[in-house]
Amino acid sequence: MEDNSKGEYEIDHKNHGSSHHNHGTHHVDRTNMKNEVNVLVHYEGNLLTINLKDQNGNAPELEVSHEKLFHLIIVSSDLQQYDHLHPVDKGNGVFKQEISLKEDLYKVFVDVSPKNLGYQIKPIDLHIGHGHYHG
Fold it and tell me: Is the pLDDT of residue 5 over 50?
């Protein structure tokens, strides 16, 4: 059985269509937006690290959304743990958040607004521990 006590997963947001704006409003339809930001999530020793990079490997400039620069949602497979957090910006596209996660499969949602780059929120699977999880 593979040891997944250290979780490290990457979601590649590259080929997802283009952005579309409703006429006369400021609403952006993100369902077909091309993602230009790659997200890497790593968990070890009660520390969650999130790396954001654009397609050239650079840290994207983020804009404030809902009064915060970064919103992180973590949900366990049994729905018993739900966290809405605001990780600390450590510079160069690295964000860190202390959190205790028990052995489980989690869905991680990274909600950011990269300046001048397309980004669509997608669930990222994060496996903590040794077990097999079904959802």
Answer: no
Whole-number CA gyration radius for the chain: 16
Number of domains present in the structure of the chain: 1
Q: Which two tokens stand for residue 38?
A: 């790659």
Dihedral over alpha carbons 109, 94, 69, 9 (to 10 degrees)? -10
Residue 41 in this model has a pLDDT that exceeds 60: yes
What type of residue sits at position 53? K
pTM (global) more than 0.85: no
39-58 burial code (b ≥16 CB/10 A, e <16)? bbbbbeeeebbbbbbbeeee
β-bridge mates for residue 72, sequence order: 85, 110
CATH classification at residue 27: 2.60.40.10
